[in-house]
C-alpha cells in the first residue's frame, strides 16, 4: 500500500544531464515512496541527475526489484510503462475509472 513518485531538488547549473523538466533548472531527482494509509516515508532512493533518469527508469532500476510477484504500487501516469503488472496508475487499461 504505497505511492511512489520522483521529486526534483534544484542545484547549481551542471549541464544537460541534470536539466529537470519539472522545474526547468538543473536538479537532482529522488524517488520517494509513502505509505498510503499512514503517510510515512517508506522508501527514498537517489540522488540521480534529473535529465538523465526519468521516474520510471529509477523505479525499474531499484524499487521494482523489491516487489513480490503480485505486488503493485500507486503512481502517476509517468509510470504507465509498468502498468498493470507493477504499477496502478490513472490511465492504465485496468483502471475502471478510465473506461
Q: Can you give a write-up of this model?
A:
- This protein is mainly beta and 99 residues long.
- It has one domain (2-98).
- Helices cover 7% and strands 35% of the residues.
- The chain contains one helix and six strands, in the order E-E-E-E-H-E-E.
- The strands form two sheets. Strands 1, 2, 3 and 4 form a four-stranded antiparallel β-sheet that branches. Strands 5-6 form a two-stranded parallel ribbon.
- The radius of gyration is 14 Å and the shape is globular.
Number of strands: 6
Question: Percent helix among the residues?
Answer: under 10%
Class by alpha and beta content: mainly beta
- State the end-to-end CA separation: 24 Å
- Counting DSSP H or I runs of 4 or more residues, the number of helices is 1
Q: Provide the number of structural domains.
A: 1
**Largest beta-sheet details:** 4 strands, antiparallel
Element pattern in H and E: EEEEHEE
Binned strand content: 35-45%
Rg, alpha carbons: 14 Å
Structural shape: globular
Unreliable stretches (pLDDT < 50, length at least 5) are: none
**Overall mean confidence score, pLDDT:** 90
Outline of the structure:
It is built from 1 helix and 6 strands, in the order ββββαββ. A hairpin with a 5-residue loop joins β3 (25-35) and β4 (41-49).
Amino acid at each position: 500500500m504505497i505511492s511512489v513518485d520522483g521529486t526534483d531538488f534544484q542545484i547549481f547549473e551542471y549541464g544537460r544531464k541534470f536539466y529537470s523538466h519539472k522545474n526547468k533548472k538543473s536538479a537532482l531527482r529522488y524517488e520517494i515512496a509513502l505509505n498510503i494509509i499512514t503517510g510515512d516515508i517508506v522508501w527514498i532512493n537517489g540522488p540521480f541527475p534529473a535529465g538523465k533518469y526519468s521516474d520510471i527508469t529509477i523505479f525499474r532500476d531499484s524499487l521494482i526489484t523489491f516487489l513480490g510477484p503480485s505486488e503493485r504500487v500507486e503512481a502517476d501516469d509517468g509510470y504507465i510503462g509498468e502498468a498493470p503488472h507493477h504499477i496502478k496508475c490513472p490511465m492504465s487499461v485496468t483502471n475502471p475509472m478510465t473506461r
